[in-house]
Each structure stands twice: as structure tokens, then as C-alpha cells.
Amino acid sequence: MIREYQLFIGSKNTKVILRPDDDWPPMWHIHAPGGFVSGMLNLTRAREAAIARVCPKGIGDRVANWIPVEIGREAGYVAQNEGAARVAKAQFQNAPASREDATPAEMKAT
User: Fold this and answer.
1) Which residue, 44, 51, 83, 97, shows the most beta carbons closer than 10 Å to its own?
2) pLDDT, position 25
């Protein structure tokens, strides 16, 4: 199973992907929209360069998130489960702390 990383700035998918090199697995390539593929980089440098490519003026107070995605025979299964986990986490974070904090619509939904 091979792992690649997708870059999100805040909650926005930048469509920039880090993929391992076929011949040198510890080395990585940046794949960006428009067909751009970088030379080989170590993972730390590849992450920094990808962020700099997407946000040349810096990301400010936004957060860069690297979402791992398994590619290979079971890729669809893994991607579905990671997507479901992100949705569940977002729903949990947006849920009221207790039933007393819930709005009437939220009370009806439970």
C-alpha cells in the first residue's frame, strides 16, 4: 500500500498532492493542477515547497493540513473511511455541548 498526501489550506482542497517516487520511496514529488510535477524532494522540503507554491505570500493564520490517502488495491475503501471520519469529526465539533445548549430544531433531530 502506498500513501500520498493531499494539501488542504484551512478547509480548502488545493488539489496539490505529494506522491512518493517510484524508484526512491523516501523521496517525493509535488503534483499540482495543470500537470506540474516537481523534481525529487525529501518529505519535509516537499511539504514546504507545496505550501509555497499554493500560497506564495504565506498562509497567514490559516492552517496547512496534509490528509494521507492510501493508494492501491483498497484505495476506494480507505478514502471512503477517511472521508466519513472527517464528516463525523466535523459533526461532533459542531454539536451542542449538552441538551440544554441545543436549539429546538436540534432537539427535534435527536
Assistant:
1) 51
2) 84
